[in-house]
Structure formats: C-alpha cells, structure tokens
Amino acid sequence: MAEINLEKIYASFLLRLEEVNNVNELSSIEKDYLGKSSVLSEERAKLSSLSNEDKKRYGADLKNFSDEVLKKLTQFKLDFEKAFYIEKEIAENPDISINWHSKEGSRKHVLTSVMEEVVDIFASLGYTVAYGPEAETSWHNFDALNTPDWHPARYESDTLYLDKDLSSLLRTQTSTVQVRHMQENDPPVYIVAPGRVYRSDQLDATHSPVFHQIEGLAVDDGITFSDLKGTLEYFVKAFFGTSVKTKFIPHFFPFTEPSAEVLVSWKDGEWLEILGCGMVDPNVFKNVKYPESTQGFAFGVGVERLAMLRYGIDHIKNFYENDLRFLDQF
Predict the structure, then answer these.
(1) Least confident span in 135-144, 184-193, 210-219, 316-325
(2) Which member of 40, 62, 73, 108 has the lowest number of beta carbons within 10 Å of its beta carbon?
(3) Where does 110-327 sit in CATH, by number?
(4) Domain spans, the chain
C-alpha cells in the first residue's frame, strides 16, 4: 500500500493556519485534518490491511502526525485569542494603562515603601514592630489613652463608630496598639506600630478619611524628654537627610505630658510640622497597670505626610487613585 506524505500534509496545514482571520476557522481546519472525513481518518482505516510490522510503524507515524496537529492547533488558538483581545483593548480604549500580559513583575506602593523605610530606621535603634486590630473598642482608642468623654475627638462627627452605643469604632490612631502591647508585656518596651487608621474627615489636599500612621513607644528605666528628642532627631536626619534641622514646640495631646510637635526646616526656609510626641501621661500607665514610677515617651507620624514632603506631592488623593502615571515614578 502506498503511504501518503505526512510532511506535505503538515506543511499544507501550517499554510492554512497562516490564512486564519477568525478563530472560528480553526474548527474547520481541525475537521479537515483530524475529523472523520480527513485524510488521517482514511489512512487509519487502511491499517487493518497491513502486516503487523507495517501496521505498527505506520500507525505510530499517523499518531505522531495527529498529536502534532492537535498541539499546534491548541497553541495557535491561545496565541490568536490573546492577540485578538490585546488589539481589541488598544482599539477600543487607547488610554488603557495596564498591560495585562506584561511579565515585568510588581513593585511596592510608595506608601508601603515609606512605611517600611521608617520601620527600618527605628529597627536599627532596637525597636520591634507591633500590630493590632483596625476595629477597636472605645476603651482602647480613647479611655485607656486618657481621652475624656467630652473630648472633641470622641464626637460622632470625627470618629467612625461601629455601633449605636459608641463602644466600638474604626481606630483613629495606632496608639491603640501601644495600649494592647503594654497590657501583655512588662517594661522595657520599644515598639513601633504601623497601620491604617480612620477618621471622619472630608477629603482635601492633606486629609483623607483613611490614612496610615506609625506610632512609637519607649518605656524603660530613667527615660527622659532628652531621649525622645534625640531619637526623633536621629529619625528625621535618617529619613530626610543630615542637613535637615528640627524644632520642638509645645502642644497638647491627652495621652502625653509634656507634649510637643516636631517641625523640620524645609527648602524655602519654612518650618513644617511632621509629627506629634511627648512623655507618656501617668494615667496611661495606670490604665495598663504599670507601676506609678514608670516613665516613657511616645510619638506618632503620618506616612502620607512624610511621603508628600519627601516627593513634593501636592494632594493626598494621588496615593489612592491607582494612576500608574503617578505610581510609576516611585
């Protein structure tokens, strides 16, 4: 029996693929080369008339041919559909900013990078990282931090409460982590608490109802305000550069006494506030059942604030709009 030239048939199959304009045409090609009426099917029907040796050899050739055609068809279909939808996206949405088929990998968001850098700076001083829940109790968020019932921060207009009794809320500060950590750990304590916080703020250039904070706490024998000042001056120079100067001005926070705001000198000679700090109020230590003689300091810094100052970002909403033209800069 004369055997057909399978190589020529496979070559004609490849030529058919080059002429495909629509994915539906692949069904017709598959039928012509692998279907019941195809040359392959006819050749398989003839195998019964061959000797055992020829049947085994020619049968293997036909199977290899079938496998190659099916493999090529499957891959061609995947590539064709992928190219089709990429062209469709380009044609229908010329402003599309994401290449779904890119293999470039991923990068960290600018806020994540800044947060990790700040944590690394304090880790170099021996601080460890502590975390806590974002849905908190009013006791951890306010009472334990020496914030009385009448304080404006507790108004419903400022805080996102989760129940009618105002006993649970979305935390307004990561100071709650400090309270939880002290409840479970005896001094000495050196921690930083990074995380997301929530306040009922209207969105403007520098405010958002959700933002990120890093709060720090140091509790140990003999800690003074000088230790606080030296720690924060080290942080500022490590983050902004050694030429940046700091200034501490009096302020008020319910959970620290004395309290201060830290300002840094900027390029135009202006002093810009970057964080709040102070010596932990004795009432806070009392609430977590620390001895009356306990001393320590605390501080809190907004991550968005740091990023905006370092990179000259003029509106906080840029961090949350997922615009790759902005994010790719970092």
Answers:
(1) 316-325
(2) 108
(3) 3.30.930.10
(4) 6-92, 110-327
